[in-house]
Amino acid sequence: MPPLIDTDTATTFTPRMRASDADRLVTVERLQDAVARGLLGPDEGSERMAEAFAAVHLTDLDPLIEDLPPAPAERTAPGWRSLGTLVVEQVRASLTTATGGLRAARVGVVLLVAALFLVLVGALTGAALSDGGAGGGGGGGWHEDWHDHRGDHWDHDGGDHWDHDGGDHWDHDGGDD
């Protein structure tokens, strides 16, 4: 007896998968990128984004971005590793002669400059991490001594007497006036 269903011509039915908020957000971000790159106008991009937020199934999201080219790969900053590689290659190129050998004088000069650079960086780091130049043991300097004597009377040999009340007022009592 022949099979009741022709398996060669039968279509398979796959249930439609529901779209999550993350799926909708990925589609909207692609649409925003397309608007920013000028691939879509603001009105069309806005309409497609509204449709993306209203989408129920994953198959509803696909037509919104299927005519857009893929987003360009994100370019990242080169970082320290590539910068270090460039420095090493530059030093190697400057140290080698036309025959490919290293000159002892050039190597010595480079090592001397590198050592001086490290000493300078160490000195600057030490100064930055020190107490800030306030004279050693954490004391603040002249302004702390001034504030210790704010209420005192200050006399000098001329006989004038100035009183300070601790605020902004100074009184002058006498002298040669």
From TrEMBL:
One Pfam family in the UniProt entry: DUF1707
Keywords recorded for this protein, A-Z: Membrane, Transmembrane, Transmembrane helix
InterPro entries: DUF1707_SHOCT-like
Ranges of residues in domain DUF1707: 17-69
Residues annotated as transmembrane: 109-129
Keyword Transmembrane set for record: yes
Source taxon at top rank: Bacteria
Designated name of the protein: DUF1707 domain-containing protein
Protein source organism: Geodermatophilus ruber
